[in-house]
Amino acid sequence: MTGARPLADERGITIVELLVSMLIGLTVLGGIVTLVTVTARSSGRVSERVAADQIARPMMTRIMNELHSTCVSPGLAPILAGSDGSSVSFIHGTGSAVAVTPAKRTVELNGDVLTDSTYERTGGTAPNWTFATSPSQTYKLLENVGTIDSTPVFRYYAYENGVIATDPLPTPLSDDDAARTVEVAVAISVSPSKSGTSGEEGAPVQLSDSAFVRFSPSNEDTEEAGLPCS
């Protein structure tokens, strides 16, 4: 029979065993920290993308509503000459009265900021109103805005042979092409607020829509009978 261990026997864990145990513990702890960090960052990117989507969609709706309210006078060509791929100027109506108050609006992409400027009417009569040269107010619609695959933010379409053409009109719009414009297409991408995001969670939110500025096609020339809102 083996006798009891003497009280003086101090055998235990060696330094090597202790170091190996510490190394294993640190490795496990490092894995847990990495997993938590990656999960938190991914969750943050998803939240930023959702926030960008929630902000961008109402602003796109606002632009569409303004474009849909451009038919304010018979014989009026609401899309103005000079509109191009990054800026659209148009006349739309405001107010609930029978005779709406016309205003000139310009939605423009400057750098990565999309703005909406209002120009008050200074005189004239329908459809030949005049407007101030400086905006009365400019509203910042969106930040971190870009294009979708190099597609212009704004594209303009006219009728050809009774149907809307598949190819957009050349820009900036001439007087004649502005008068022929019956549809405006808008396409933007909005990136999450923080830089450095990647993957699906950090991909820009892409939005596109179009608005008709003529109730029904009449003809394809630029005479008054063929203008939008006629």
Describe this structure in words.
The chain has 230 residues and is α+β, with helices and mostly antiparallel strands. It contains 3 helices and 12 strands. The chain has helices at residues 15-68, 175-180, 199-202; strands spanning 87-94, 101-110, 113-119, 121-125, 128-131, 137-142, 145-146, 154-157, 159-160, 163-164, 183-190, 205-212. The strands form 4 sheets. A 4-stranded antiparallel β-sheet has the order 1-2-3-6, with helices on one face. Strands 7, 8, 11 and 12 form a 4-stranded antiparallel β-sheet that branches. A two-stranded antiparallel sheet has the order 4-5. A hairpin with a 2-residue loop joins β2 and β3 (113-119). The longest helix is centred in the N-terminal third of the chain and has 54 residues, at 15-68.
SS field, number of helical segments: 3
Largest sheet: 4 strands, antiparallel
Low-confidence stretches: none
The residue-averaged pLDDT reads 80
Helix content percent band: 25-40%
Order of helices and strands: HEEEEEEEEEEHEHE
Summarize the structure.
The protein is built from three helices and twelve strands. It is α+β, with helices and mostly antiparallel strands and 230 residues long. It is elongated, with a radius of gyration of 31 Å.
Which features characterize this protein?
elongated; 3 helices; alpha+beta; 28% helix; 230 residues; 4-stranded antiparallel β-sheet
Secondary structure elements and pairings:
Blueprint: H1 15-68, E1 87-94, E2 101-110, E3 113-119, E4 121-125, E5 128-131, E6 137-142, E7 145-146, E8 154-157, E9 159-160, E10 163-164, H2 175-180, E11 183-190, H3 199-202, E12 205-212
Antiparallel strand pairs: 1-2, 2-3, 3-6, 4-5, 7-11, 8-11, 9-10, 11-12
